[in-house]
Amino acid sequence: MQTAPATTGIDPAAPATPMRAGGPAAAARGEAPAMGIARSVHKDEEIYGEGDEARWYFKVTAGVVRTCKILSDGRRQIEAFHVAGDIFGIERGTDYHCSAEAVGEAVVVAYRRCSLEILAAGDMPLARQVVATALLNLERAQQHMILLGRKSATEKVATFLLEMADRVHVDAIELPMSRSDIADYLGLTIETVSRTLTQLERDGVIALPAARRNIVLRNKAALRRLNA
């Protein structure tokens, strides 16, 4: 039986639901699909901690996961939000460089870390997805660096809303993350995030229904102009 390090937030080797990454298509090709272990994760539950041994990587199948670091002064910087279909926990070194936590109730599939050559031999589609994810994460990290360093508060919020809408492919976004999460991702205060969203609503760019985590993008062209 596979075992995970004791320091990992969740134990992928604990009783769970096995899932094969390749599925019927891989079986039809005579391949041995990579075996993943599905785990349910509760709100704010840690999946792995910064400095834990990176023996697993994960794919989100439901919910949202945040990866973040705690700075030396105690502030939190959220590096990324991972939605259904995203792979996270891919590390160049032997340890995780940040922590990963469920934003709300989530389901992730854990895969035992191995070399890309071994993975490709067992499940080529998953290997391609891992490579594509690594490149996409690098691109998003570069964009996030520009967002943090060069954009105004309004531009940051507009960028975030467009990014989330593009990733979930809807204009009415139900954000599982709190205003605090958004603030720590954008490098802003909670008050600034709330004030900016209220101003965008007054300007008719977005709508904030009674359920305040629901945001409707009423004028994506205006958001894109702010994001330019």
TrEMBL record:
Q: Which residues lie in coiled coils?
A: none
Domain HTH crp-type spans what residues? Answer: 151-221
Q: Where is the composition biased (Low complexity)?
A: 12-26
Q: Which domain of life is it from?
A: Bacteria
* This protein's UniProt keywords: DNA-binding, Transcription, Transcription regulation
Q: InterPro entries recorded for this chain? A: cNMP-bd_dom, cNMP-bd_dom_sf, Env_Response_Regulators, HTH_CRP, RmlC-like_jellyroll, Tscrpt_reg_HTH_Crp-type_CS, WH-like_DNA-bd_sf, WH_DNA-bd_sf
- Chain residue ranges for the region called Disordered: 1-26
What Gene3D superfamilies does this protein map onto?
Jelly Rolls, Winged helix-like DNA-binding domain superfamily/Winged helix DNA-binding domain
For this protein, the record's PROSITE patterns field holds: HTH_CRP_1, HTH_CRP_2
Q: What is this protein called?
A: CRP/FNR family nitrogen fixation transcriptional regulator
Originating organism: Labrys wisconsinensis
